[in-house]
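Work Package 3 (structural annotation) set out to generate three-dimensional models for the target panel prioritized at the project kickoff. During this period the team completed the workflow that converts sequence records into discrete structure tokens, so that structures can be stored uniformly alongside our sequence database. As a representative example, we reproduce one entry of 287 residues exactly as it appears in the project archive.
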Amino acid sequence: MAQHDYDIANGTGAAVRTDINNVLDAVVSTNSGSSAPSTTYSYQQWADTSAGLLKIRNGANNAWVTVGTLDAANLGLATLASPTLTGNPKSVTPATGDNDTSIATTAFVKTLVDSAVATAVGNLTDAQMPAGSILQVVEVPQSLTNSLEITASSVLVGSQMNVSITPSSAANKILVQFNVNCQATNGYYTAVGVTVFRGSGVNTSLSGTNLAGGGGQNTTGVFCIHNAGMGSNLSSDNCLSASVIDSPSSTSSVTYTIAFRKMDISGQARLGARGAFSTMTLMEIKG
């Protein structure tokens, strides 16, 4: 270890020679020592043996800058070819859309992925959605007031509750769900049956296809039944719910109507018991 002020003083031949040798010792040992050289110069190197670091003086000659670790391969620095980095190495984040050999930081990747996902989801067409995906939902709540007096018990009548939907593909299906309030009155074992028509019409003007089966208005097909209590002149309220998947095979507007009928020859059947709200929901399902 040797350090020098790099100033050769005048003296005898032997003294000058010793001073020169001391300078050379400082040079070859990189000014090594446990403390910094007392005389410093811009860009002067110092092997700090106390910290085990190679340091260099900055251009302003007012501070030491650490270069690397003494006695470590490549001073402990990453090699130019195939370096193995540890810890949390960082780099400048390239501009979005950069397409060259720049290092991609996590910030660059996250921004790119977030943008790609947002674009993909936002621009995903119905045709690109997987089978079973819900493409659109239409829902209507309504207060129903239909009442059916004593008539042929097999006749289905249409309620005011109807919802229309336009499928985006003829291959798609429509899930129909309903929850309606109903009332059976003035009869012994009086009951109300509820179904869904692919069609329209209020009361006896109902036309279309009964999704519970039967195809027409004069049919016994219903999805759910509400029975009144036993006895004469009784009134019984209830909620009936059901769901059905339909295949209208159409890209035109399709209307679905809640229909109902008396299940018995006596009594009355009514939707919208005591004016409570009912709901019907249509969902287009990718086929």
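The mean pLDDT is 86.
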